[in-house]
Every structure is written in C-alpha cells, then in structure tokens.
Amino acid sequence: MTTVEERPAREANPSATAADRPIGFGRIQRKEDPRFVRGKGNYLDDIVLPGMLHGAILRSPMAHGRIVSIDTTEALAHPKVHAVITGTDLEGLNLAWAPTLSADVQAVLATDKVRFQGQEVAFVVAEDRYSARDALELIDVEYEQLDPVIDVRRALDPGAPVVRTDLEGRTDNHIFDWEAGDAAETDAVFAAADVVVKQEMVYPRVHPAPMETCGAIADYEPIDGKLTLYETTQAPHAHRTLFAMVAGIPEHKIRVISPDIGGGFGNKVGIYPGYILAVVGSIVTGKPVKWVEDRSENLMSTSFARDYIMTGEVAATRDGKILAVRTNVLADHGAFNATAQPTKYPAGFFHIFTGSYDLQAAHCKVTGVYTNKAPGGVAYACSFRVTEAVYLVERMVDVLASELGMDPVELRLKNFIKPEQFPYANKTGWEYDSGDYEPTMRLAMQIAGYEDLRREQAEKRARGELMGIGISFFTETVGAGPRKHMDIVGLGMADGAEVRVHPTGKAVVRLSVQSQGQGHETTFAQIVAEELGIPPEDIDVVHGDTDNTPFGLGTYGSRSTPVSGAAVALTSRKVRDKARLIAAAMLETRPEDLEWEKGRWFVKGDPGAGKTIAEIALGAHGTVALPEGVDGNLDAEVTYDPPNLTFPFGAYICVVDIDKGTGKVHVRRFVAVDDCGTRINPMIIEGQIHGGLADGVGMALMEFIGFDEDGNCLGGSFMDYLIPTAMEVPDWETGHTVTPSPHHPIGAKGIGESATVGSPPAVVNAVVDALAPFGLTHMDMPCTPARVWEAMQGRPTPPI
Amino acid sequence: MQVPAPFDYVRATSVANALELLERHGPEARVIAGGHSLLPMMKLRLARPDWIIDINDVAELHALTEEPDELRVGALTRHAELLDSDVVGRLFPIIHDAERVIADPVVRNRGTIGGSLGQADPAEDLTTVCDVLHARIVIASPGGERVVDMADFHRGPYETACEQHELITEIRFPVRPRAGSAYEKVERRVGDWAVAAAGAALWMAEDGTVADATIGLTALGLEGPAVEAAAVLIGERPSEDLFAEAADLAAAASSPIEDQRGPVDYKRHLAAELTRRVLGRALDRAAHPAVA
Ligand SMILES: Cc1cc2nc3c(=O)[nH]c(=O)nc-3n(C[C@H](O)[C@H](O)[C@H](O)COP(=O)(O)OP(=O)(O)OC[C@H]3O[C@@H](n4cnc5c(N)ncnc54)[C@H](O)[C@@H]3O)c2cc1C
C-alpha cells in the first residue's frame, strides 16, 4: 500500500530537546557526527603505531610494456629504506598474483608485463613517507614498450595486442559473454512491432573518488603469528577470509579493523595490491607498515566504475505501449577482471534494464573484454550495474517518446507495472517485491509543477532559449542477496547481527557491515530502539572490527539496511521474545498473558503490572529464578539470509537551462521523489539522496576518465577528473512515498544508491530535451560545455 | 598525500632581504607567495627547488594605493583582497569579473597577483586582465627597480621578464576617464581553469565614439592583446555589428589547441562569443560607471 506524503517543510532541528527525540524511527541527528564535526574522526591515516614504517609504490609509466629488468640497488642503499620488494620477490612467496573477486587473477606487483598506466611495479618500505617516495626515484626499471589496447571497440579485433598473455592459451581479449532473458521471444516481438527505436550510448568510465583515498596498516606480530590489518574497507570480514585464503595466514590469527571511512562508494570493496604489500612489508621488516595512496594513485589505479557501451532497442506500438527491450553491451573491464559482484552475474544486476515497465519480452547480451586500463568495474554507488541498466532504459524511453511525439511522462505512466501486478516477475528473472509507481510519478510532477514547466519551456523555445525538462523513473534491485543465488568468491551474501542488553538496560549492537558515511551508528541504533524501546543514545553500535563483530559480507550495493538492518530487527525481536519469558517469571504469570508496548511487557488487562526492558535486563543478569531453558542474559544473535532482494524506486525531474552561446548547462531544479519503503531516519535518507544526486549531476555533466591513444590516463587528478561542487547543484527538492517491502522485517528497502542510479538519466534527458530544437535525440555524458556545443552543431560525439 | 622532494626554507623580511637571499641561494632558489601554483608542482615533483624563499612577511609588497592617475597593487595582494576591494571594483570591474572565477575561495585567500603573473600559466586570468588594462609591472633587482609594460613583461607561457634573481613588487593600473571593462570565462566547473575567456576595456570619447579599446583572450593561444580586433573599434560609434566584427577578428587572431576542454572550433567560437559579450558589458559599464 502506498501512502503519499507531502514534501516535508524544512523543519527546525527536532532533536534539540530530548523530549522530542523519537525512541525508534524518525528524524534524529546522527550519533556519529559530533566526533566528525569536531575533527575527532579516526581515519586510517590518523593511526600511528609504535615503530611504524611507511610504504610507497612504484607504478608503471606506460599502459603496456614488457619488464626487461628492475634494479633496486640504489634504492636499497638509501639510508632510510628498510626494504624494496619486487614482483620477483613475491613470486618466491607465491604472492605475485592474487585472485580477484571475479575468478580472475591480478598482479600484486608486475612480473612479466605492465598492463595499465599506474600498475604496481615495486614497493619501498622506509622510515617516513618522504624517504619512501624519494627512494622510488632510485629504482631503475627498463621496459620494452608494447602496443596497447585502448579503444574497447577494437579490443576484439583479430590481431589486437593480447593483454593477458599470462593466462594459459589466451589468444584474444575476450573475457565473457553473458545473457539474460529470452532472445528468440524478444526478437519475435521486435519483428512484429509497429515501432522500433535504437540508440547506442556510452556510459563513460568514471571513478568513485572518495574524499579519503585507500590505504592499509599491517602489523604482523611474528611471535604469535597474529596479523592486525587496518584497512579502508567496506567489507572487513570478507577481507579477512580472503587474506586467510590468499596469504595462508590462519583466519583466527587475522584481525581486520576498518576505522572511520571517508567515503567508499564501492571504491573500498576490493583488495588492492597496496594492502597485500603492506602485509608483506610488515612480515619482511618485522614492523608495522602503513601505506596510503595519494589522489592520483587513487584515480589512476583503483576501482573505476561503468565503462559500458550499450546499444538499446525498444519495440512499441504506435500509441505508446512498450512491448520489449533488448540490448547489447560491450564492457571494458580493464587489464584484470576484478569487478566485485555475485559470482553468477558477471554483468552484475544489469538485467534489471527492464526498468519500471510491464514488458512482453526482454533480452540482453553483455560482452566483457580486457584492455590496457585500470581494473575494477563495479563501484561508485551503482548497486552492481543497476546504474547502467537504469540509464539505458530511461534514455531509451525518452528516445521512444521523441519518436512517437509523446510526452515522456505520459509514455512512462502508460507503461508502468500496475500495483496489482506485484510481486512482479520480470522477463529477465527478477521478482519485484512491491511497487506503486504512479503516485510517486505524480507527486514528483506536482512538486515540480510539471505543466507550468512545459508552458515555460514552450515560451522560451519560441524566443530561441534552451530549456530542458528531464524525467527518470527508476527501479533498483538491492540488498544482495539470497544465498541460494548469490555469493562472492563462495561466501554467501548474508549478514550477522548481535544485540546485548546490559544489566542497566543500555545495549550494544554489533554489525558485520561497515559505514563509509551512511550513518550506521544512528540508523541501526534506531532499529533496535524501534524494536526494544531503548533510546537510540543508549545503544552503542560496533562495527568495522572482525574481532568484535559477527561475520557478514559488508556494505555496498545498498545492502546494509535490506540485509543487516533485517538481521538487527530480527535479533532485537529475539531479545524481545526472551524478555517476555523473563518478564513472565518476574511477574509470576504466563508469557502468553503478556502484551508488548514499546519498551515494556505488561499483563494483559492490567497495564500497571509490567516490566521495562531495563528491569528485565537486570532481572536476567540478577537473581530472578529463570524459566527452564532460559539463560541469564538478554542477548541474541541472527545471521540473516534475505529471501529476495528489495526494489526501491523513484521519480526524478530535472530542469536545465543551456547557454546557447557557450554550451554551458545550468541545472536549475531537481525534484527527487524516492520510495525506499519504511523510512528509518528521514534526515539520513535525505542526506543519502542529496549526495547521490550530486554524484549523478557530476557524472552527467563532468566526470570522465579519458585515455589518450597510448593509454595515458587523462583523469589522474582533480584538475582533470572533475567532481561537482555546491555551485553546480541546485537546492534539492525531495519528496517521498512509502511502499514497504513485504518480505523485509521492517519493510525497509535501502536508499544508499537510489539517487546516484536514478539521477544521471534525468539530467541527460533534460539536456537532450533542451537541445531538441537542434533535432537531437541523444548525446553521451559528460555534457561538458564543449560537448554540448558540438551536439548543437550536429556532432554528438561519443566520449572515447 | 603527494610529497615534494627535499628542499630548504627561509623567510624574507624585506624586498632587499628577499633579493639578497635569492642571490645567496643561487639558481635553484624560488620565491613562494601564495604557493598555489608552486606547491602543487612541487608535490607532483615537476618543480624541485633547493630553496624556498617565503615572501609572505614582506609588508611593503602588500599595499593597495589609489593615486589620481593610477592604482598601485602590491605583488603580494591576494585574489580575495582584490575581490573585496571597492576601489578595484569601481575603477576596474574587469578585475572583479575575473577574480570571481579564479579558482575557489581557498585558493583566492592565499594566491597573489604577483604569483599569478609570475607563474604565467597559459590559462591564467590576470595576465589577460593586465594586458587589457595596460598594466605596468615593477620589477626589483639587486641593481635597482624597473617598470615594464605587459608587452615586455609577459613573454609567453611560463616565461616573463622577471628573472630568477628578481622580484615582482607592484602592478600599476593606469586610471583613465569614461572607461568600462569586463571579463567572461567559460569553465567546465566552478574553480576549473578556463576553457576560454575574454576580457575587454573601452575608453569612450566625449562624443560617444570609442577613444581606445583593448581585447584580450585567455587559454586561446594568443599572446598579448588582440590588436587588430580592437583597432576596428577606435573612432567608431559602438553597435552590435561593430562588436561582432571585432569579435570575429579576435577569433581569427586566436590559435587554440584541442584538449579535454574542447575542440579547436569550439574554442574559436568562444573567442568570438565571449569577446562580443564583454564588449557589450564594457560599453554598458562605461555608460553607467559605478559610483564611488
Ligand atoms: C585548484 C586551483 C585552481 C586554480 N584556478 C585558477 C584559475 O582559474 N585562474 C587563474 O588565473 N589561476 C588559477 N589558479 C592559480 C592561482 O591563482 C595561483 O594562486 C596563482 O596562479 C599563483 O599565485 P601564488 O601567489 O599562489 O603563487 P606561487 O605559487 O607562490 O608562485 C607561483 C610562481 O610565481 C613566482 N612568484 C610568486 N611571487 C612572485 C614575486 N612577487 N616575484 C617574482 N616571482 C614570484 C614563484 O616563484 C613561482 O614560480 C588556481 C590554482 C589552484 C590551486
């Protein structure tokens, strides 16, 4: 059931007084913020261990080259250098290559060839960061330059240079072909359709660019063989298991600590060579070793996102009924296939490209290839390629609207999956849990004043001014995922939670997921509060330390609330059930005679006779005679295996003005109506949306990692890789509807990536709409002034 | 964190002391003002001075003086100070136009006009502004002081008349009546260096014709002002056609290169488009001068 709510007015700070503070869901200030706003966050680079050394990585200056020789003599002679490690040294330890998250291998330090500019070639450990960096210049590497594969469209040409000569028998750059949906059925619908539109579009290579770059501190204790590894990681438990598998250190001897993380966006899911090198450095020197990459290293070598060339086709009737969608994708995976996604899905969840529409057929084919570029691929708030899928379908619907001469909103409304069709089985294998799309679309139109905007646009067009209105309506699939379908390197995508209520009624909740800024310390406390009636400020949230938290796969793909949030809710309910048994003992009545109100069990019909959670906790730990089989605590633990994914959705409307003389796009307004099911903390939700929208505007207008034909990375600094500032984004106008997930214990769907996923097509659709007077029906991101001007000249050139 | 190569550091107390330190520490010594050009290059190890001579304490470089016929701006004047100054805004609105789009507040709080001109980056904005306003640059050297005009000062990208052992001390902007000036830049994002920019100044005769004019372009491959473009304006009564003609000549004088900011034809188009716009705005300002 959908409830449509008005856009909330800007409220005064509701958490100003304790009396207003909700015990449970509601708008409360983030518990973690006082330490951040006072500069007391504890990020990786803040950590200093006694005797700690510093590492620096020598990187490849070229995209493709054979290593002829590496001479480290001079570097080793530097008075402050403790160790210089090369690929040959790692070969001796069987660590030169490490498995990736996609069943490939990746060089930790190059041995045979370098395969992208910025690839790791040698590691120096020195007394301080400056000496380590100075010593890099003393390493002499001789390369024999090879022809690189840069243009992904040429990567499969016969005779193209082979990137992965290390893989036995490999004679080309092909990684995989992957399909979803029924090709024959889809082709048949296309063959019979009145109208078919087709468009090739590029989702350029972009980068998550978190404010904090990646890094690690390894502290190997040789006597008891224990490794403490501080890492910027979104998935501490998965990292621990992988380190145990790869480095051969027993898992119980590894402790991974992920301190405060300054932004992740998927960039901090994988294990980078630098992390492994810090460990090797610590083992070799017997001292803790810190390695923190600089901004250029982060942009040039760590996990990028997107890089999909997609050809979309839509079949429809003349009157605007969409029948089928099909697409072919060429996916640039860089030099190693290191994308992070559930094993079965090499293109992530791209097969959600059927969007929010009721189709008769759908089919996609994705071809992954190697090129001489940095590896990675699933990152940047994309929910495992849902970003690419949403962009494809939402762009295609606009292409169809312009072919049919239909209003893009009207076309969408006509094709939405209807509320009574949920749960909805789409044509590529998903079961959408719940949705009611039309009220969400209509609320966005109402906030935007859609009819007035169209009138204004018509007037402006008559005067020769360029104004565009862009729509996007997205459906995501998040919260991976059911273990019968989903694992990463064999680890089921479940998450654990543990709740303990202390004798005085305060509580601790321990999580397997790891915040990178999402506000876990508040949201998860609120879930416990909602279930147990303990005020959020009395609940400590522990995460990011494998010695102190239950196992689970971590935070990415908007999965924390759908998976871990469910685990926390169910754990709290277990505590509540146990509290009932103890309360019954304390009240000398039967459990079934008790009734729950937030925070206390009381005797049915006698509200005065009851016990609060705090009283029950004290009873549990005290001297109350406990019922048979009940032990003396108020603790519980759950590992949650989600039965399905959740399907958040939303309607976005973007209004742009374009300066005809310069091509400059000004985003004037952006309306975002999101439906993430049950809303735990609306303020945190809005924060997630604001950030995601800024990301989306960035991708649509400016973000792009380009390469020259030799494979030199052209986006290696913030001078060249542009991310938006407050000046490029409008005052966001948000609204929401609430359609709970039927299978999630509290009905929440996850919001972390909705805005990043949903906003780029809204912006691009607005730009294309503004440029309609030039006969344009598509242009590729990023819509920089120059590229917009070129599009006006009839040259909407792809960005590679 | 990007870390520079080893260097030594010393603070100068006066212009004379700075010159003395430059001489003492030899050819690998560099003056540092705001540091917003020099430090990034050092961190990338594109610049590796042995010595850094910090001139931020030199008070005599830090003055803004209005004389009847010129405005004198000390080399250490920060971008933010130029932007805050009412006198600057009244006399030379082009400086405020430009300063508003130079980098971001953090950079503007430290970066200096002397450093900008000294750096002479091809996409740097104040060189164009100084060209347009016929600024003169005061250079101190161990032998004394000389005053050069922009044509002599600015020798091309990263090259100026100020030698390694010398110091820029002051920039002098002549004040003339019935003037209007403007600057406009296209950038991919706030704080980005220019894709292209244009500046213009007009000095009107009493009869309403153009007495004198200059047009300058930034990041468009033209060193010095667009002389032929400005020449067609002189003695003429301003009109849209006239400005369009000048704008086309400015575009013809430009020789932009293709890069990530855009192709050649786009940049040349911007040369004309922006020139037309700044001429219009300069005329408007000459007609309606800001009151003191
Ligand atoms: C992110 C960013 C964006 C920027 N964007 C722009 C922009 O859009 N437009 C623009 O014009 N600029 C831009 N800049 C440059 C900025 O304006 C710099 O501050 C300026 O170019 C240099 O001034 P500075 O005082 O910082 O010089 P410094 O970095 O201290 O010095 C630069 C050079 O000048 C020399 N020097 C400094 N002072 C003197 C002196 N008195 N005499 C002789 N030599 C001297 C130094 O030795 C050095 O070689 C940007 C900078 C950054 C970091």
UniProtKB/TrEMBL annotation, chain A:
Oxidoreductase in keyword set: yes
Basic and acidic residues bias spans: 1-10
Domain of life: Bacteria
Ranges for domain Aldehyde oxidase/xanthine dehydrogenase a/b hammerhead: 38-147
Listed Pfam families: Ald_Xan_dh_C, MoCoBD_1, MoCoBD_2
Region (Disordered): 1-24
Cofactor requirement: Mo-molybdopterin cytosine dinucleotide
Cleavable signal peptide: none
Keywords from the UniProt entry: Molybdenum, Oxidoreductase
GO molecular function: anaerobic carbon-monoxide dehydrogenase activity; copper ion binding; iron ion binding; molybdenum ion binding
SMART domains xrefs: Ald_Xan_dh_C (SM01008)
Entry protein name: Carbon monoxide dehydrogenase, large subunit apoprotein
Originating species: Blastococcus tunisiensis
TrEMBL record, chain B:
Pfam families, A to Z: CO_deh_flav_C, FAD_binding_5
Keywords of the record: FAD, Flavoprotein, Oxidoreductase
Top-rank lineage group of the source organism: Bacteria
Protein name: Carbon-monoxide dehydrogenase medium subunit
InterPro entries linked to this entry: CO_DH_flav_C (IPR005107), CO_DH_flav_C_dom_sf (IPR036683), Diverse_Substr_Oxidored (IPR051312), FAD-bd_PCMH (IPR016166), FAD-bd_PCMH-like_sf (IPR036318), FAD-bd_PCMH_sub1 (IPR016167), FAD-bd_PCMH_sub2 (IPR016169), Mopterin_DH_FAD-bd (IPR002346)
Species, as recorded: Blastococcus tunisiensis
Every FAD-binding PCMH-type domain range: 2-178
Flavoprotein is among the record's keywords: yes
PROSITE patterns per record: FAD_PCMH (PS51387)
Gene3D superfamilies per UniProt: 3.30.465.10, CO dehydrogenase flavoprotein, C-terminal domain, Uridine Diphospho-n-acetylenolpyruvylglucosamine Reductase, domain 2
A single GO molecular function term of this UniProt record: FAD binding
UniProt keyword DNA repair, yes or no: no
